[in-house]
Structure formats: structure tokens, C-alpha cells
């Protein structure tokens, strides 16, 4: 133990000295000037290089530019999506046979837990932050985020968060299974999560806590940016729909994530310091569920509102019509934001809670379908009689609406107590929320990536591959998750590593068939994502350069937003012999320098 | 020291501090919660130092040292308050470091605070005598 401490002390000392040395090398903190002095550089002015950013890896490690941070978020999220996706494939392959095909029960539980947390916290939230970071300042005409450095801190908390969440997988082989991956499922219900002695659970909780801190910092930044940094031409009446959804989402984060953080700290204290927050003799295990879902249900809307904003922004562009009922889409966004805090106990209908409380939560949960339906009808009405152009981003938007309807309607059934008591903890629930998280949120993210691809890469993606990506995703999603809805009706419980149950409980043959169908769908989905990665990587490196500032021909319908106007200005400012990477960087100041 | 401009003076959109603020916070959390004494101490020092650095860089503070000193004082006060609140007085002894789940962690926080106070104090004095 003592030897271990000494080694750890040595390692930490080396790290700290290394950090100090690196900082002294790249930074001169004696040269800092107070901002009041105009921010000019003291010392030898001629030594100052008049470029926006340093070169190479240092640029990415030190950037506080919202566009760079947006790209970092994007790359991070896509990597997390790949990791979570591979975990999903392992889950689906395991369930091909009732006895489990490839994994031990422990491995299955670990992967199931990590798949959920990875997709929600390391893919979902960051991919939204990627779009918001890159495009909110451009859409509202701001120079940057209100707090660029906090923006960078928020991003840099995420890589350690991911390493901690996945820590058990890396540490199990080297610690002879002393530290294993958490097997608590993503909901971390007490008493299971308190009683699992495995330190991997602590590491996962710390990682989640860090990701929550990051999300909260980001949310504060977006609220401040949208309130204070808008261009003088942008007011509340003409603020774009994506900014509205990010503003609402940030407010939800502000109320929800600190609560998750506190609940996680309480769980950590229960695990390590013998407190009794969630023990039977203390607050009781149900307290965890209340705290978790008071965060957890708003989290659903934290994840879905900005994608709805993306669809509301992109879908009209390819319908040749302005968003139908813009005001009501904004109102329904705000309504969902408020109502989302009043529905959490619908996750707990079967816990034996007070039936009168249950009824009120059912009422609010059913009520939230109204603003959601307002949005859905508005999207459909926007397309009605429009001049539809089925580009890849548009296909993904239509796919979003279609999947959202199935995911939403199945949710309405679950909101009803008697139905929920039958379907609770079955694959019906899994199918329902995957229609939303993959079929809707994932699809909107793809729509955003394709729609803005010309802006953040300066190049065009390959259209055929994009469409193949859409069709494989659409067919794969619907086969996989529709099969899950059917499995739920057959009574298949969720989270099980195997399903060799007695034929008297459920028809095993049919259950196996639907599991196999779901796996086939997942394979189709997986192949689609290979097209996506190939398309993005190859097009970013070799795709044809975009020379027109309006690659989607939006000007014709008077729908060229501020971000494409900014892009056009960048293109005009850049002459071909310049460094093409400037396209994505802004590089405004360098242009000014060179022009003068 | 030659007055060469640092990274964040040369480039308006670059700052070396956010990465280390994040790393410091992550190490502090791991150290304190998992109960790894050295990681807690060094993590907190990195966190406090980076806060001092980033506040100075962005112009909220003129010099980093008072901030470092201040963070150190806050940590010591927090550790002392928790100790008095949660640890029986009889158990508060240096020989008890390493035993009991809470006390060792609080000592780690206090140790980090003490190091920061020392660093901030010495650097302040050195800077003023050099000037």
C-alpha cells in the first residue's frame, strides 16, 4: 500500500512538473495585460505572429474558438457513437440464441450498462453541443460564445469523463478483475448500485458527474450567449428555431444536471462513506428513483429538443416553404420544457407509489403529447404542397418525423397507467425509446451533419453514399425497434442476457424469431453507419470543394440563414491559393491583415 | 526572463489553461472520492493553479498568486469545517491519517490547500522583492 502510494506520488509529481514545464514553454504569464488596457501585447510587438491560431496539435489543445470546440465535440461524439454502436451490436449478437451467443452474463450486463450511458451522455449531449457551439454564434451573429474559456473547459472535462465511464473495461485485465466495468444499468437503481462493491462503479459515477459538470457549464454559456451576444439585427421575434431549442434545453440542463450531480455524490457517499441516503433505514431506495428520474425525464427532452430544432430549421429549407406555425413551434418547445419536470414518476408507476400521485403524473405525461403533436403537425404541414427536394439532410428529417411519430405514439400508451403496468420493463419500452433516441435524435444529428457539411469542411459529401446511409439507417431502425415493440407485447423482459424461459410464460419460438429479426435490423443499421463514416472521412479529405456560398440554393426561396451568409463571406475572403483549412477556421483576422 | 509573448497573447483564440482546469478537476474528484491521497493533493494543486492562471490570463486578476493563496485558504477552511463537523475530536490526530474513510480524504484536501498557500505566498514575496 505504502509502495503504491509512493509510486503514485512520483507519477503525480512528474505529471505536475510536466504540466508546469509545458505551460512555461508555451505561455508567458508575465506578459498578461489587463483587459482594460485594450488587450494589446506587451513586450516586443514585432515578435507577435498575426495569425488566429497556433499550428498543429497545440491548436486543438488550446483552442477557445467556438468553431474548433464545436468540431472537437463532433469528433468526440462520433467516436462515442462508434463505441456505443459496437456495444449495441454485441448486445444484439448475444441475443440471437436464447442461451446467449457470445458473451458471459457479466460481460453482457457491463456492456448493456455502458451502451446506455455512452449513447446518452457521451454521444447524445456532445453531438448537440457540437452543433450548438459551431452554429449558434453564427446564427445569432455573435463573434464567439459569451465565455470562450469556460466553453473549452466544458469540452475538456468530457475525455476524462469517457475514460472514467469506460474505466472498468480497461482496468479489469490489468487489476485481475479487482476493478470491473459497472453493471448497474444506466439507471443505477439503489440498492443494486450501492451494494456492488466493484470500484468500477465509483469510477463510472465520477465520470458521469464530470460529464454533468461539463453539460452545466455549457448550458450557462449558451444561455449567456443567446441573451447577450446577439447581433443587433437579431431579436426575440426573429431568433431562429434552433437557438430557441438550445435556449430551452440549456434551461432544462441548468435545473436537471446539478440534481443528477448531487444524487451521484449521495450515491458515492453511500458507497464509500457509509451514509444512508438510499438505504432502507435512511432515505430508502425509492428516493434514488425520484431523484434520478427528476433529472432523467428532463434529460429526454434535453436530448430531443435541439434535434427537433434542427429538423425545424432544416426541413423548411428543402420544402421551399417557411416553417409552418413558427410561433407555435416555439411555444410548444417552451411548453415541453416546463412540462418535462412534471412527468418523472411515469417511470415509477409499478413501484407501488401512491395511486393518486400516479394519476396526476399520468395526466401530465399525456398532456405533454400535445405540444409534441403540435410540432409534428407543423412539420407535416410545412411539407404539405411544398417543393420537396429529397436531399440527404431532408431524407433524414422526414425519417425523423416518421420515427418520432412511432416513438411518440408508443410513448402515449406507456403514459397510461394500466398499459404501463403490463408493458413496464419489457422490450416495448426499449423499442419505444430507441425509436426516439436512434430514430429521431440520431437521425436529426445526421441531418445536421449533412446539411452543414459544406460549412465545417468546405467540401461536399458524396450524395449516393449519403442516401445509402439514410436508407440503411431507416430500414435498420424500423426492423430492429419494431421487432422490440413486438417482443414487448410477447412479454420479453428488458435487460436479460439470456431468455431460456419456460414456454408457459411466453412463446419462446416467436420471441427468438423477433430477437433474430432485431439483430438482422441492427446489422443493416451497422452497415449504414459504415457508409456514414466512410463518406464523412473521405469527403472531408478529398471531396469536391464548395465554391458557392449557397450550396443548397436557399437564396431562391429567401431562406439563406446567417450561417450560410457567414460562409459566403469566408469564401469571398479566401482566394484559392490560401490555406484551405482557413475555411473551417474563420481566419477573418488573417484575411484582414493580408488585405491591408 | 526574455519578454516573449505567450501563446494566448500571440493568438486571440488560444489559451493553454482550460485543458488543465479540466484535468485538475477530474484528478481532484478521482483522488478525493476514490481515496487516493497523492492524486487528490496533486489534482487539487493543478486545479487551483489553473484557476489562478486562467483568471489572470483573462484579466479577472492581475497576478495569479493571490488567487492560488485564496483557493488554498478555501480548501483548508472546507477541510477543517468538515473535520469538526463529522470526525470525533479524539480521532483528529496525525497518526490517524490513513485510517477511517473521511479523515484521510480531508487531510489530503487540507494538504493541497497548505501547498497552495505556501506556493502563492512564496511566489508573491519573490515577485515583490524582484520587482
From TrEMBL, chain A:
<keyword id="KW-0812">Transmembrane</keyword>
<comment type="similarity">
    <text>Belongs to the heme-copper respiratory oxidase family.</text>
</comment>
<dbReference type="GO" id="GO:0015990">
    <property type="term" value="P:electron transport coupled proton transport"/>
</dbReference>
<dbReference type="GO" id="GO:0016020">
    <property type="term" value="C:membrane"/>
</dbReference>
<dbReference type="GO" id="GO:0006119">
    <property type="term" value="P:oxidative phosphorylation"/>
</dbReference>
<feature type="transmembrane region" description="Helical">
    <location>
        <begin position="517"/>
        <end position="537"/>
    </location>
</feature>
<comment type="pathway">
    <text>Energy metabolism; oxidative phosphorylation.</text>
</comment>
<feature type="transmembrane region" description="Helical">
    <location>
        <begin position="393"/>
        <end position="415"/>
    </location>
</feature>
<dbReference type="InterPro" id="IPR036927">
    <property type="entry name" value="Cyt_c_oxase-like_su1_sf"/>
</dbReference>
<keyword id="KW-0186">Copper</keyword>
<keyword id="KW-0408">Iron</keyword>
<dbReference type="GO" id="GO:0004129">
    <property type="term" value="F:cytochrome-c oxidase activity"/>
</dbReference>
<feature type="transmembrane region" description="Helical">
    <location>
        <begin position="435"/>
        <end position="456"/>
    </location>
</feature>
<dbReference type="Pfam" id="PF00115">
    <property type="entry name" value="COX1"/>
</dbReference>
<dbReference type="InterPro" id="IPR023616">
    <property type="entry name" value="Cyt_c_oxase-like_su1_dom"/>
</dbReference>
<feature type="transmembrane region" description="Helical">
    <location>
        <begin position="6"/>
        <end position="24"/>
    </location>
</feature>
<dbReference type="InterPro" id="IPR000883">
    <property type="entry name" value="Cyt_C_Oxase_1"/>
</dbReference>
<keyword id="KW-1133">Transmembrane helix</keyword>
<keyword id="KW-0249">Electron transport</keyword>
<feature type="compositionally biased region" description="Acidic residues">
    <location>
        <begin position="587"/>
        <end position="596"/>
    </location>
</feature>
<dbReference type="GO" id="GO:0020037">
    <property type="term" value="F:heme binding"/>
</dbReference>
<protein>
    <recommendedName>
        <fullName>cytochrome-c oxidase</fullName>
        <ecNumber>7.1.1.9</ecNumber>
    </recommendedName>
</protein>
UniProtKB/TrEMBL annotation, chain B:
<dbReference type="Pfam" id="PF24396">
    <property type="entry name" value="DUF7541"/>
</dbReference>
<protein>
    <recommendedName>
        <fullName>Cox cluster protein</fullName>
    </recommendedName>
</protein>
<dbReference type="InterPro" id="IPR055963">
    <property type="entry name" value="DUF7541"/>
</dbReference>
<feature type="transmembrane region" description="Helical">
    <location>
        <begin position="107"/>
        <end position="126"/>
    </location>
</feature>
<keyword id="KW-1133">Transmembrane helix</keyword>
<keyword id="KW-0812">Transmembrane</keyword>
<feature type="transmembrane region" description="Helical">
    <location>
        <begin position="68"/>
        <end position="87"/>
    </location>
</feature>
<keyword id="KW-0472">Membrane</keyword>
<feature type="transmembrane region" description="Helical">
    <location>
        <begin position="20"/>
        <end position="47"/>
    </location>
</feature>
Amino acid at each position: 500500500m505504502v509502495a503504491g502510494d509512493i509510486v503514485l506520488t512520483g507519477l503525480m509529481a512528474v505529471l505536475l512538473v510536466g504540466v508546469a514545464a509545458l505551460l512555461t514553454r508555451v505561455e508567458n504569464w508575465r506578459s498578461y495585460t489587463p483587459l482594460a488596457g485594450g488587450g494589446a501585447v506587451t513586450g516586443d510587438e514585432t515578435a507577435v505572429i498575426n495569425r488566429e491560431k497556433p499550428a498543429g496539435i497545440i491548436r486543438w489543445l488550446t483552442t477557445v474558438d467556438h468553431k474548433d470546440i464545436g468540431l472537437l465535440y463532433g469528433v468526440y461524439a462520433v467516436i462515442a457513437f462508434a463505441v456505443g454502436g459496437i456495444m449495441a451490436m454485441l448486445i444484439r449478437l448475444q441475443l440471437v440464441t436464447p442461451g446467449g451467443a457470445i458473451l458471459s452474463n457479466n460481460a453482457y450486463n457491463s456492456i448493456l450498462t455502458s451502451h446506455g450511458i455512452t449513447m446518452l451522455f457521451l454521444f447524445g449531449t456532445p453531438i448537440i453541443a457540437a452543433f450548438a457551439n459551431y452554429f449558434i454564434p453564427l446564427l445569432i451573429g455573435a463573434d464567439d460564445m459569451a465565455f470562450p474559456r469556460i466553453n473549452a473547459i466544458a469540452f475538456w472535462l468530457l475525455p476524462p469523463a469517457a475514460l472514467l465511464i469506460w474505466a472498468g473495461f480497461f482496468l479489469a485485465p490489468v487489476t485481475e478483475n479487482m476493478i470491473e466495468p459497472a453493471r448497474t444499468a444506466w439507471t443505477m437503481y439503489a440498492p443494486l448500485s450501492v451494494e456492488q462493491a466493484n470500484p468500477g462503479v465509483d469510477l463510472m459515477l465520477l465520470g458521469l458527474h464530470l460529464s454533468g459538470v461539463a453539460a452545466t457549464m455549457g448550458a450557462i454559456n449558451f444561455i449567456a450567449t443567446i441573451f447577450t451576444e446577439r447581433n443587433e439585427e437579431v431579436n426575440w421575434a426573429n431568433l431562429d428555431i434552433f437557438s430557441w431549442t438550445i435556449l430551452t434545453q440549456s434551461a432544462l440542463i441548468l435545473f436537471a444536471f446539478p440534481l443528477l450531480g448531487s444524487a451521484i455524490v449521495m450515491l458515492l457517499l453511500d458507497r464509500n462513506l457509509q451514509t444512508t441516503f438510499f438505504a432502507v433505514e435512511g432515505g430508502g431506495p425509492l428516493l434514488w428513483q425520484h431523484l434520478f428520474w427528476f433529472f432523467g425525464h428532463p434529460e429526454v427532452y434535453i436530448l430531443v429538443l435541439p434535434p427537433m430544432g434542427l429538423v425545424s430549421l432544416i426541413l423548411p429549407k428543402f420544402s421551399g416553404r417557411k416553417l409552418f406555425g413558427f410561433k407555435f413551434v416555439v411555444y410548444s418547445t417552451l411548453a415541453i420544457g416546463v412540462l418535462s419536470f412534471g412527468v418523472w414518476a411515469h417511470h415509477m408507476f409499478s413501484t407501488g407509489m401512491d395511486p393518486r400521485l400516479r394519476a396526476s403524473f399520468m395526466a401530465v405525461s399525456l398532456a405533454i403529447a400535445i405540444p409534441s403533436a403540435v410540432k409534428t403537425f407543423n412539420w407535416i404541414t410545412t411539407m404539405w404542397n411544398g417543393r420537396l427536394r429529397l436531399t440527404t439532410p431532408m431524407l433524414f428529417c422526414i425519417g425523423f418525423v416518421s420515427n418520432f411519430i412511432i416513438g411518440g405514439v408508443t410513448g402515449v400508451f406507456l403514459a397510461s397507467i394500466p398499459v404501463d403496468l403490463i408493458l413496464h420493463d419489457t422490450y416495448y419500452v426499449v423499442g419505444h425509446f430507441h425509436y426516439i433516441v436512434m430514430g429521431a435524435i440520431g437521425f436529426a444529428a445526421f441531418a445536421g451533419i449533412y446539411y452543414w457539411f459544406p460549412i465545417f469542411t468546405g467540401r461536399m459529401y458524396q450524395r449516393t453514399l449519403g442516401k445509402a446511409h439514410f436508407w440503411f439507417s431507416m430500414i435498420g431502425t424500423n426492423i430492429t425497434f419494431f421487432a422490440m415493440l413486438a417482443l414487448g407485447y410477447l412479454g420479453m423482459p428488458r435487460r436479460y442476457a439470456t431468455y431460456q424461459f419456460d414456454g408457459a410464460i411466453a412463446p419462446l419460438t416467436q420471441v427468438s424469431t423477433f430477437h433474430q429479426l432485431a439483430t438482422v435490423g441492427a446489422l443493416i443499421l451497422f452497415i449504414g453507419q459504415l457508409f456514414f463514416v466512410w463518406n464523412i472521412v473521405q469527403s472531408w479529405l478529398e471531396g469536391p470543394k464548395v465554391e458557392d456560398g449557397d450550396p443548397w440554393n436557399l437564396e431562391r426561396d429567401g431562406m439563406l440563414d446567417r450561417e450560410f451568409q457567414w460562409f459566403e463571406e469566408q469564401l469571398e475572403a479566401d482566394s484559392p491559393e490560401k490555406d484551405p483549412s482557413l475555411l473551417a477556421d474563420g481566419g477573418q483576422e488573417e484575411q484582414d491583415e493580408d488585405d491591408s | 526572463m526574455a519578454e516573449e509573448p505567450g501563446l494566448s497573447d500571440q493568438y486571440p483564440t488560444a489559451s493553454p489553461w482550460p485543458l488543465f482546469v479540466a484535468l485538475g478537476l477530474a484528478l481532484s474528484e478521482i483522488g478525493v472520492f476514490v481515496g487516493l491521497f497523492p492524486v487528490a493533493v496533486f489534482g487539487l494543486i493543478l486545479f487551483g493553479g489553473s484557476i489562478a492562471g486562467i483568471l489572470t490570463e483573462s484579466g479577472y486578476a492581475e497576478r495569479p498568486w493571490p488567487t492560488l493563496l485564496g483557493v488554498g485558504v478555501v480548501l483548508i477552511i472546507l477541510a477543517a469545517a468538515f473535520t469538526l463537523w463529522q470526525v470525533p475530536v479524539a480521532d483528529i490526530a496525525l497518526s490517524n491519517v490513513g485510517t477511517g474513510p473521511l479523515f484521510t480524504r480531508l487531510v489530503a484536501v487540507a494538504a493541497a490547500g497548505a501547498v497552495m498557500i505556501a506556493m502563492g505566498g512564496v511566489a508573491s514575496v519573490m515577485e515583490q522583492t524582484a520587482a
